[in-house]
Amino acid sequence: MENEFLTVAEAAARIAEGRIMVLAGDEALLSQLPKGRWIGGTTVYFITETGGEERRDKLFCTTFPMGTDARPRLVATKDLPQISEGYTTHGFSLILVPAFSTTHSEFALHGASFPGLFEQPLFGWVTGVGLDEIGKRKPKVFIGSDGSSHEDGAALLHVELPGELSADLDILNIFERGGEANPPILFETSGFTVTEALVAGQRVNLAEYVTRTGMDTKLPLVANYAGALINVSIQEVDLAKGQVTLYAPVLAGVEYRQAEALGNYAEAFSDKVGTSGAGQFSCNCILNYLYGDMTGKRTGAFTGPVTFGEIAYVLLNQTLVRMDIQAA
Predict the structure, then answer these.
(1) What InterPro entries does UniProt report for this protein, alphabetically (predicted)?
(2) Structural domain contains residue 180
(3) Which of 63, 155, 182, 202 could form a disulfide with 2 if both were Cys (CB 3.0 to 4.6 A apart)?
């Protein structure tokens, strides 16, 4: 695959050639692209070959020349359980979801239960806007087949691969679950906003508990989902309302512990990534970008959009997700 920063004219030329592509960038740029075999999503933050940066003049474009066919489509919120119905015979699927939308919530809460979802690599991200634009502009997804843009619904691109190739999907999580000093936290209901929790078996108001104990809200809550460590990041602690808002939902009955402290966030991320990432497609969380102060800093050889959530089958937070195309 090919990762490039392109002008609108350059990206349009590739689309006109029939290239299979996924694009990320400012809405004003994505809206100028011609119809074709592509999907796109809004963001203005990127990890480039020279480090993290905010860009509004170019599009980050990933092309899949090995793809033998591709079909873009919009899946409405009510139809999300039908995502796998678009899977190709042999290949992978890309998914983009607008942040703060009903699709975002529905996919986060129920995606893991959608029939057939795990039968093919499903990779993608949650689209965003500039941090100063939150509440003023809405994140969007674009469907290349008709050039339409949407504030809700999921953009899917189902890509067919030749039989000798396969997609390898993986997550890079720099966090580990805390030990005994980080007590288990259980929730009785699932959701993005929580009030009460059971901490070491004791019922507490979570906002009060976080404030009283001085929990570092840059460190996510971490659960073990069938062997994979999955983060749930804290967005806001509102003592007045007695509630904590999260970037991804907690699930009822699942045990969480706050992540172990990292020391230096940027160094921990750099050590975990190493020099890997060349030739792969990746997306990195906006929280890693902010907390790791990644402006001007490289993350190995990984390049790609900085996103408001990452998708490797299910919604993730504070994670780098990557995909590689390899010999089967």
Answers:
(1) DUF6976 (IPR054249)
(2) no
(3) 63
Q: Which domain holds residue 162?
A: 2-171+266-327
Q: Over the Cα atoms of the chain, what is R_g?
A: 19
Identify the domain boundary among 258, 291, 313: 258
The β-bridge partners of 180 are none
Give, in order, the Cα–Cα distances in Å from 151 to each of 41, 249, 311: 10, 20, 18
Residues in the chain: 328
Q: What CA–CA distance (Å, rounded) separates 3 from 278?
A: 10
Instruction: Please give the tally of structural domains in the chain.
Output: 2
DSSP assignment of 203-228 equals EEEHHHHHHHHT--TTSPEEEEETTE
Q: Are the C-beta atoms of residues 100 and 139 closer than 8 Å to each other? A: yes
The CA angle 142-143-145, to the nearest 5 degrees, is 150
199 and 251 in a single domain? The answer is yes
pLDDT recorded at residue 270: 78
Token look-up 């674009």 returns: 142
Here the tokens at position 66 are 């090995």
Two tokens, residue 68: 């033998």
Three-state secondary-structure class, residue 21: strand
The closest alpha carbon to 321, from 148, 145, 92, belongs to 92
The neighbouring-strand residues paired with 3 are 62
Q: Kindly tell me the sign of the dihedral angle through the C-alpha atoms of 124, 127, 130, 132.
A: negative
Residue 50: per-residue pLDDT: 86
**Are 323 and 314 a contacting pair, CB within 8 Å?**
no
250 and 304 inside one domain = no
State the DSSP string of 106-117.
HHHHHGGGSTTG
Residue 300 CB-half CA count within 13 A: 22
pLDDT along the chain (328 residues), means of 10: 95 98 98 98 94 94 97 98 97 97 96 96 97 94 97 98 95 88 94 96 97 94 88 95 94 94 81 79 93 84 93 94 92
